[in-house]
Amino acid sequence: MKHRDEAPGRGRRARAELARLLACLDDPAAVDAFLDDLCTPAEIEALADRWSVVPLLDAGMPYRQIHEVTGVSVTTVGRIARCLEGGAGGYRSALRHHEHQPEPSHP
Fold it and tell me: Which pLDDT score is estimated for 98?
């Protein structure tokens, strides 16, 4: 992550603005397009990889098995598990929301 001198609070304000914007985007296609513009392909892949681990951890799958299924390193799986159990609550909130969403239909 870049370290730069910035006006106090600028980073917090930018993050809060980004969070508000993401909360407003209720169309998955719009979110996907925004992510394409905002992130590099590698960043999107990393985010998707991390999310793919969360439901598996929640289901009780062992770290090593998650690594074998997803390719995500055991170290990263452990970090995600720590956040899932004692983080800011974002993963838990997303899981609750995800559990109430219908599976996307595939043509």
Answer: 81
**Euclidean distance between CA atoms 88 and 41, whole angstroms:** 26
DSSP structure class, residue 88: S
Residues 6+ apart with CB under 8 A from 57: 66, 77, 80, 81, 84
Q: Are 19 and 56 in contact (CB under 8 A)?
A: no
Gap between the Cα atoms of 2 and 62, Å rounded: 34
DSSP E strands, the chain: none
pLDDT tens readout for residues 65-80:
999 999 999 999 999 9
Q: Can you tell me the distance from the alpha carbon of 85 to that of 43, in angstroms, rounded to the nearest whole number?
A: 24
DSSP the chain: -------TTHHHHHHHHHHHHHHH---HHHHHHHHHHHS-HHHHHHHHHHHHHHHHHHTT--HHHHHHHH---HHHHHHHHHHHHHSSSHHHHHHHHHHTSPPPP--
Query: What is the model's pTM?
Result: 0.80
